[in-house]
Design goal:
The chain is 81% helix and 0% strand. With 84 residues, it is mainly α.
Length: 84
């Protein structure tokens, strides 16, 4: 659980930054967000998950559950592709 006092201190520090420091912080924040949540990062995470799933071997599941998983993965890929 985040500590409200820590967040308050951080926000006070940010408010005390100069315009140039805030701009630099904004650029670093955007770069960090892209590296974690950008298309490349999300595609890499999806690929790693799929490789891990394949390495686990075949799954014996009823057709209904397999269809659900395939529909979910397809929806995820489409959402990532179209930025939804």
């Amino acid at each position: 659980m985040p500590d409200p006092a820590v967040w308050a201190d951080a926000l006070e520090d940010i408010c005390g930054l100069s315009e140039a420091e805030r701009s630099a912080l904004g650029c670093r924040s955007q770069d960090r967000a892209r590296s974690i949540f950008g298309m490349e990062a999300m595609a890499g995470a999806l690929e790693a998950s799929l490789v891990e799933a394949v390495e686990m071997g075949p799954v014996r599941a009823p057709l209904k559950e397999v269809g659900f998983v395939l529909a979910f993965v397809l929806g995820l890929v489409l959402a990532i592709s179209f930025g939804v």
